[in-house]
């Protein structure tokens, strides 16, 4: 029996997983909520690097590896590319297009956390939408700043940090209300692309707020690359063995 292994953890990956037949596997790192309503199998946890993934591909008779992880999950994608090459299993990837600044945007591109901190020095109330990384730095918040950090899971804050656990999609009205309540003077974001979390950028544009934007990491080339979920599902449907329900 030929099987597909889907590497996920994003909303796009979940949409693909919902289309898969029972014999295929959706793999999650385990950092977010685990879906319980899928027809396909669900695997939670790591593989033990590229070589562990090679063994899994062989043991589970995986005939196709589909990478629909987050655009910033560079290590996972690199391991997937290496494992697929070693195991001689085709490697497909969903590469969601990045957001592009518009004429009135004030985007300040940075490459790593130290550059984020330096770019934020003039500001007092940043809104972080980077995921969990700021949580490791709550004890180093400058005295003149108060942070709001939005991420997937609840986490304790402190007297200079508020943590919001929330999962997109986020609406434009909801983001406007958040900005009204928080009084933010800068937004910090990954360039994740997609519509689910883009509303914050529109609100920043409306209010002429700067955006400190973390550049995307370099990702490995895939045997086939797709820009949207529909393209992946159509290609799975066209395969010679049954994949999509």
Give a description of the structure.
By secondary structure, the chain is α/β, with parallel strands linked by helices. 28% of the residues lie in helices and 22% in strands. The strands form two sheets. The protein has a six-stranded parallel β-sheet, with helices on both faces. Strands 6-11-10-7-8-9 form a six-stranded parallel β-sheet, sandwiched between helices. Helix 3 links the parallel strand 4 (62-67) and strand 5 (91-94). Helix 1 (11-17) packs parallel to helix 7 (229-237) and helix 2 (49-59) packs across helix 3. Keywords: Cobalamin biosynthesis, Oxidoreductase. This is Precorrin-6A reductase.
CATH superfamily of the largest domain, called what? NAD(P)-binding Rossmann-like Domain
CATH topology of the largest domain: Rossmann fold
Rg over C-alpha atoms, rounded to the nearest angstrom: 20 Å
Beta strands, count: 12
Largest sheet: 6 strands, parallel
Task: Give me the side-by-side strand order of the main sheet.
Answer: 3-2-1-4-5-12
Number of DSSP helical runs: 7
Report mean pLDDT, rounded to a whole number. Answer: 94
The SSE order reads EHEEHEHEEHEEEHEHEEH
User: How far is the N terminus from the C terminus?
Assistant: 16 Å
Coarse shape:
elongated
What would you call the structural class?
alpha/beta
Helix percent reads: 25-40%
Percent of residues in β-strands: 15-25%
- Contiguous uncertain segments of 5+ residues: none
InterPro entries: Precorrin-6x_reduct
Protein name: Precorrin-6A reductase
Pathway: Cofactor biosynthesis; adenosylcobalamin biosynthesis
Keywords: Cobalamin biosynthesis, Oxidoreductase
């Amino acid at each position: 029996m030929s099987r597909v292994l889907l590497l996920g953890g994003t909303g796009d990956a979940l949409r693909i997983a919902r289309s898969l037949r029972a014999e295929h596997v959706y793999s999650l790192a385990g950092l977010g909520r685990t879906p319980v309503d899928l027809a396909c199998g669900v695997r939670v946890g790591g593989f033990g690097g590229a070589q562990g993934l090679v063994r899994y591909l062989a043991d589970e008779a995986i005939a196709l590896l589909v990478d629909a992880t987050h655009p910033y999950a560079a290590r996972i994608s690199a391991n997937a590319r290496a494992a697929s090459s070693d195991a001689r299993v085709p490697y497909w990837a969903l590469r969601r297009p990045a957001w592009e600044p518009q004429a009135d945007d004030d985007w300040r591109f940075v490459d790593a956390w130290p550059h984020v901190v330096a770019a934020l020095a003039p500001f007092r109330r940043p809104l972080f939408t980077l995921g969990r990384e700021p949580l490791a730095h709550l004890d180093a918040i400058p005295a003149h700043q108060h942070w709001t950090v939005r991420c997937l899971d609840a986490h304790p804050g402190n007297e200079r940090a508020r943590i919001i656990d929330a999962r997109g999609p986020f609406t434009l009205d909801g983001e406007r209300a958040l900005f009204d309540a928080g009084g933010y003077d800068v937004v910090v974001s990954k360039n994740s692309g997609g519509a689910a979390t883009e509303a914050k950028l529109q609100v920043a544009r409306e209010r002429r707020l700067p955006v400190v934007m973390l550049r995307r990491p370099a990702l490995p080339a895939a045997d086939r690359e797709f820009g949207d979920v529909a393209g992946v599902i159509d290609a799975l449907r066209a395969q010679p063995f049954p994949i999509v329900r």
